[in-house]
Amino acid sequence: MSTVKIPNGHQAVMPYLMLDGASKFKDFTTNVFAGVITQTHYQEDDANAIKHSEVRIGESTIMFCDSRGEWPAQPANLFVYVDNADDTFQKALSEGATSVMEPADQDYGRSCGVKDPCGNVWWITSVL
């Protein structure tokens, strides 16, 4: 049995995204995935730049921040389960995402892909 101490609301492995325009990511995740922002801290020298933020989607937390000189933007591919892939796909498009794969039935469920306004690719899936 593991004795690793993990803060409440976190999991053992968490994505940490350095993004250009982290506030767009914040809006995208709250509007498309009903994400809940659990904390946000801004840069001391730039009140618009996110130094550290966390969004909770379901039981998962994603950490993110605005990129800076020593921490360049590094968008990611993310896989997310949702109740209805088709509805979430349409919601993502209405929030500025672009389609990378139209919704289709796969062996593992109904799946599609979008690229969010920060360049992250989301693989959206609902289990049939």
Topology of helices and strands:
Blueprint: E1 16-19, H1 22-33, E2 36-43, E3 46-57, E4 60-66, E5 77-81, H2 85-94, E6 98-106, E7 109-115, E8 121-126
Parallel strand pairs: 1-4, 5-8
Antiparallel strand pairs: 2-3, 3-4, 6-7, 7-8
Fold and architecture overview:
The chain is α/β, with parallel strands linked by helices and 128 residues long. The protein has a single domain (16-126), classed as 2,3-Dihydroxybiphenyl 1,2-Dioxygenase, domain 1. 17% of the residues lie in helices and 45% in strands. It is built from two helices and eight strands; from the N terminus they run E-H-E-E-E-E-H-E-E-E. The longest helix is centred in the first third of the chain and has 12 residues, at 22-33. The mean pLDDT is 95.
Instruction: Count the domains.
Output: 1
Rg, Å, rounded? 15 Å
Tally of contiguous helical segments: 2
Strand order of the largest sheet: 1-4-3-2
Strand content: over 45%
- The CATH topology label is 2,3-Dihydroxybiphenyl 1,2-Dioxygenase, domain 1
Largest sheet: 4 strands, mixed
Number of strands: 8
**Low-pLDDT ranges:** none
Q: Structural class, judged by helices and strands? A: alpha/beta
What's the CATH H-level homologous superfamily? Answer: 2,3-Dihydroxybiphenyl 1,2-Dioxygenase, domain 1
Order of helices and strands: EHEEEEHEEE
Mean pLDDT: 95
Helix content: 10-25%
CATH class: Alpha Beta
Distance between the termini: 34 Å
CATH architecture group name: Roll
What shape does the CA trace take?
A: globular
